[in-house]
Amino acid sequence: MDAALVGLAGTTVGAVTGFAGAWLAQRGQLRIQQEQRTHAERVRWLDDKKGLYRDLLITLYGWHDSLAAIGKGVDDGRPADHRTAAYRWIVETSLIADDQVRTAVSDVHRALLRAEAALVDGAGGGSGAGGGSAVGGVPVLDGVEDRLADLEDALRAELAMPGRVGTRSSAGPRGLRRASRSPAVPGPPGA
Q1: Fewest CB within 10 angstroms: 40, 41, 60, 163, which?
Q2: How many CB atoms are located within 10 Å of the residue 134 CB?
Q3: CA 24-26-27 angle, 5° bins
Q4: Where are the residues of the annotated region Disordered (predicted)?
């Protein structure tokens, strides 16, 4: 009878060990699947944001270029089209972007509206050389260009936040162009 009890105990221990091993393996597999879903969602979300931000920038630069054409006395007749498209992309961006991006988008939007008003008033009144492209001797679109550069920086910062998928630092031509505009920006530590 002792052999039967030892056999029964061995079978029970084997069954419990097998069950525990299967449970742990299944739990690990579920955790891996959850991480894969989370990763895929992050990648998809970043791709969606990149597309939205790209379309926003293209539209805002199109609006800027139309205003620049007006400033040069060549009205392409498209500022209203670009403004309307920009409203759509601004609203969509404001729904998903963080505070820094929303602030930068709002700054660009206000700068473009001010520049458009100044150009239309300047062109209508005939003030200034070049069809009203300057107000008080300062080019109207300089502020817009600065705000667009700030928006690009904010978009890049949001898309490259630590913890995001596929982040990498970019010290390409954009960083050099930005540094040339702001000479007071200190260099990297130890440089």
Answers
A1: 163
A2: 19
A3: 65
A4: 162-191
**pTM beyond 0.70, yes or no:** no
Where b means 16+ CB within 10 Å and e means fewer, 135-164 reads beeeebbebbbebbbbbbbbbeebeeeeee
pLDDT at 139: 72
Of residues 125, 83, 78, 130, the one with CA closest to residue 108 = 83
Query: How many Å apart are CA 141 and CA 78, to the nearest integer?
Result: 17
Q: β-pairing, 138-139 with 134-135? A: antiparallel
What are the tens digits of pLDDT across the range 35-76?
988 888 888 888 888 999 999 999 999 999 888 888 888 877
For the chain, domain boundaries: 50-180
Position 20, amino acid? A
Does residue 29 sit in helix, strand or coil? Answer: helix
Q: Which residue has the tokens 């550069």?
A: 149
* 139 phi and psi angles, rounded to 5 deg: -55, 130
Question: Exposed, middle or buried: residue 166 (CB in 10 Å: 0-12, 13-18, 19+)?
Answer: exposed
Instruction: Please name the residues in contact with 169: beta carbons below 8 A apart, sequence gap of 6 or more.
Output: 160
pLDDT over threshold 90, residue 85: yes
Residues of 27-65 as b/e, b for ≥16 C-beta within 10 angstroms? Answer: eeeeeeeeeeeeeeeeeeebeebeebbeebbebbbbbbe
